[in-house]
Design brief:
8-stranded mixed β-sheet, 5-stranded mixed β-sheet, alpha+beta
């Protein structure tokens, strides 16, 4: 599937100044909410600036992440990711996780997918009160201060995520703009530190290896912080299989819609009425868009005769409904002419279904 170097007008990633959401003027709040909902409607991805997570805190978080991945392998392995897909916590070494859009019970399918190794390492963190997915921390003597900082950072991101969810609800025209907050306590979110180490560009071009293959996210929304290396690409909704390169914007959140929020919104055809809004193309209203990480777009991101890619660091924060939350189409998003498209699903069950082939 191909990439395009330049974003055409119909697939550009919108940039939204979220500082206006904190305004005391209802008109300004409603305007930024509508802008955000429209971006989720038309693209499924949006860059958000002035979002409330301070540049200083982000700089510190990326510093911790780099120091983490600079540790010796034997030290990182003191907090190993548990076997299998049930608990998604701790350190995942390169090749352990295999990201895909494939849903299957057949483990042979998973083995075939693993023939192309994902060249990345990660560290997963959740709420200390999530007993279904307990955290796996490095010993304090190995990495002092890491647990305290990341626990605080996790909840700072949660605060911002709740404002974004409420703004989306407002922009959609829901009768209760805070409807989604009832299902998002924050205890089922996931903070992920990601490091893509240098790799010869030819390995990615020949598909011997991958960074992050095309996939959608499983939750409600994802907030991504990233360095300036580049490599994130988003599928063009108007041209399936064509991926658009996302320009890195310092300290911005790249926010995208996940599968469960798309299901909540009924994947409503845009030719129909949706929460009082009329649109004109048959696409999901809140779209869970495919995305991937591949080669950096700029030549200065490569070095040497083997064109070694520059290391990439990113920090996604996945916002999910609580584990027992029942996700069913919101009443305002279904009608006689636009019947419910999705059966109700429990978050726990959906996550385990999607994770089946991700870990062995």
């Amino acid at each position: 599937m191909g990439s395009v170097e330049k974003e055409s007008s119909q697939v550009s990633i919108p940039i939204i100044d979220f500082s206006k959401w904190s305004s005391s003027t209802p008109a300004e709040r409603n305007a930024v909410a509508k802008e955000l909902a429209d971006a989720c409607h038309n693209v499924g991805f949006v860059s958000i600036i002035n979002h409330g997570v301070s540049p200083e805190l982000l700089e510190e978080a990326f510093g911790w992440s780099k120091r983490l991945f600079d540790l010796k392998t034997e030290d990182k392995m003191k907090a190993p990711h548990p076997p299998g897909p049930t608990v998604h916590r701790g350190y995942s070494w390169p090749g352990l996780e295999k990201v895909s859009q494939v849903i299957s019970e057949d483990m042979e399918v998973g083995e075939k997918l693993r023939a192309t190794v994902d060249c990345k390492e990660s560290y997963e963190i959740g709420s200390e009160e999530n007993t279904e997915q307990p955290n796996v921390w490095l010993p304090e003597e190995v990495f002092p201060g890491f647990r305290k900082f990341m626990t605080n950072f996790y909840w700072e991101c949660s605060k911002t995520s709740r404002e974004i969810l409420k703004a989306i609800g407002t922009g959609m025209g829901l009768q209760d703009p805070g409807f989604m907050l009832k299902f998002h306590s924050g205890h089922n979110n996931q903070l992920r530190l990601l490091h893509y180490p240098p790799i010869p560009a030819a390995q990615l071009e020949s598909e011997q290896s991958a960074r992050m293959p095309a996939h959608s996210d499983w939750g409600s929304i994802t907030m991504l912080f990233q360095d300036d290396c580049g490599g994130l690409e988003v599928e063009n909704q108007h041209v399936p299989g064509q991926f658009v390169k996302v320009t890195s914007l310092k300290n911005a959140i790249v926010m995208n819609i996940g599968d469960l929020l798309m299901r909540w919104s009924n994947g409503n055809p845009r030719s129909m009425y949706f929460c009082g809004v009329v649109a004109d193309h048959e696409l999901d209203y809140l779209k869970s868009t495919l995305h991937r990480v591949t080669l950096p777009p700029a030549e200065d991101r490569f070095t040497g005769s083997k064109r070694m890619t520059r290391a990439r660091y990113s920090i996604p924060y996945f916002i999910s409904p609580d584990v027992d939350a029942r996700i069913e189409v919101m009443p305002e998003c279904a009608s006689e002419s636009n019947p419910t498209k999705y059966e109700p699903v429990i978050q726990r069950e959906y996550r385990l279904m999607r994770a089946k082939l991700q870990y062995v």
